[in-house]
Structure formats: C-alpha cells, structure tokens
C-alpha cells in the first residue's frame, strides 16, 4: 500500500452498522510512500495509522479525474 500527502484513507467498518472512517493523509512517515501515515480524519482527530486489510487509499489523482 502506497500513498502520498493529500490522498484519502478510508477505513471500512468491520461490524454491521459501523460506518466507514475517512481522512486525509497529511504526512507519509514510511519510506517510498509506505505506512505509517499521519491522517486527519473528518471529525478533526489526527492520528498515526498503519492500514490493515479493511483500509483503502483513494489517490488524489484519481479523485480529480471524475
């Protein structure tokens, strides 16, 4: 999984009724775009994440094409 600053990180809910949690990657702490990432979530909370299999990266370039 690779990302750059400005990409979106989406953690999908793992339990029925649990909502997805999304945020903007504000800093890439790993080498060559690899985790961990500092993420600012939509609720204003900021944290360091090492994404698991329930997470996807939505790259900034692909979001602007639509």
UniProtKB/TrEMBL annotation:
InterPro entries attached to this UniProt entry: DUF1918
Residues of the DUF1918 domain: 1-57
Coiled coil region boundaries: none
Positions of the UniProt region annotated as Disordered: 37-66
Comp. bias intervals (Basic and acidic residues): 55-66
Pfam family, one: DUF1918
Protein name in the entry: DUF1918 domain-containing protein
Native source organism of the sequence: Streptomyces tendae
Lineage, broadest ranks: Bacteria, Bacillati, Actinomycetota, Actinomycetes, Kitasatosporales
